[in-house]
Amino acid sequence: MPTLVTVAALVAIVSSLGAPLIPTIARTDKVSLSTAEWLLTAALMTGALATPAMGRLADGPHKRRVIEVALSVVLAGCVLSAVASSFWVIVIGRGLQGVGLGLLPVTMAIARSQFSPDKAGRAIATLSVTAAVGAGLGYPLTALIAQVFEFHAAFWFGAITVALALVLVVSVLPKRSPATSRRFDVVGMVALGIAVVGVSVVLSEGGDWGWTSARSLGIVGGCVVLVALWIRHELRTKDPLIDVRQVRNRSVLTADVSGFMIAVAMYMFLPIMIEFVQIPVAVGYGFSASVLVSGLVFVPLSIGSFAASRCLAIYDRHFATRSMIPFGSLVFAASTLFFALEHRALWEAFVAAGMAGIGIGFTFAAMPGFIVRAVPAAETGSATGFYQVLRSTGLSVGSALAAALLTAYTGAGQTFPTFEGFRATLFVASALCVITAVLSYVLPGRSAERQSPLTEEVVQMMEEEGEVGATGLSLAEEVPVSIVEEPRP
């Protein structure tokens, strides 16, 4: 169990090596703030692709090998970023580090296969708290290291932590787990990877290429065709990477659409706020905050999401689960709109982060609950798998879209965009949250009335999802069927 907790903490540390360092690396390497967003986009894009692949590979008996390979890749990425002398080498390193974002569901799979049901439940709860608390502490910790030394030291810290975790994994975890190997869908993985990378690149670079240029339109058109072929392939193959059939269920569709849109809004808000507080006052806006202070902004975010996750049962008794996603989306919209309009003092960033944490906690907790109470127990794994892919992809798209908007407001040769670029990005994030609130209430229709009531086990799962919501991670990759009741006819 200590080894699994160490790996979960590592996930939080790897996720904290991005946002607070963006302004510092942009100034050091003399790139624009929008270009520096690739430090986030690259890791999120890799994480979106690695998570379903690692989840599928972890279904078999070689769970430890999956963790060993993932940690080795993350270690290589941390070392590469630590020794890099150019910006794009750091980005490549961050892309390799993104593989670590798929580790949390694998640690859960090991806990379920090695422990008794009661102990496994406690272990998974511990892992979710570790990831949530680790993210809240990881941002200021890595920011402090970067401030006291310099940003390369933060990556060395990550490398040392990963190396220690790798030694523990090799020494402690069993080589094989009781499971049967399944065929891995290589074609589906490659097709999905190309589509996600293509969309992210166009969103990031479309402003420079021209949104109606032949290059932009060609890549977008190719991605659309590729996604259509990917869906056809997933429907026909015997062991698909993602089972997309469950999208026909309106409750599942609600969670999928809401998860994608809130994820996009989340990474159009959180990195933007962290970057804003570090921008020198001489630019005309910003607070000239240190890297450490910007990392501390994430603390109320984690506190807010944790507090929201503990209010789910009370909320459900008074207002029902159907309004949980709309409520969280509107709270999230209020936080982004608040910071877009009120940003004259640093404390307002902390308040906005806390509000965002509450909204994120409610929305990300409710979504998997919608799924597991709406589909038969045997189909929860495939339904939550597609939700996880869309949510992870949304984070990458949100980061790329934020970079595209900042690029549009950045002058030639300038590092920082005008203030209007930040405000436009926050307004778009607010609009996405409001649209999510409307869609998440309308889409379920009568299917919301046929869902089974919340059980204690489902509430616990939703609480764990809410806890890690602010980290951008998800625990819903693999839901034990024992906690799911069959939906009402």
What would your notes on this structure say?
The structure is a single chain. This protein is an all-alpha fold. It is built from 20 helices and no strands. The longest helix has 32 residues, at 117-148. The radius of gyration is 21 Å and the shape is globular. The chain starts with a helix and ends in a 21-residue tail after the last helix. 57% of the residues are buried. Residues 477-489 have low confidence and may be disordered.
Summarize this entry quickly.
This protein has 489 residues and is mostly helical.
Content-based structural category: mainly alpha
- Pick out the low-confidence regions: 477-489
Percentage of helical residues? over 70%
Into how many domains do the coordinates divide? 2
Tell me the name of the CATH class of the largest domain. Mainly Alpha
Round the mean pLDDT to the nearest integer and report it. Answer: 82
User: How would a crystallographer describe the biggest sheet?
Assistant: none
* Strand fraction: under 5%
Order of helices and strands: HHHHHHHHHHHHHHHHHHHH
Measured between the Cα atoms of the first and last residue, the distance is 40 Å
Report the CATH superfamily of the largest domain: MFS general substrate transporter like domains
CATH architecture of the largest domain: Up-down Bundle
| Large-scale geometry | globular
Beta strands, count:
0
CATH fold title of the largest domain = Growth Hormone, Chain: A
Any idea what the radius of gyration is? 21 Å
The DSSP helix count reads: 20
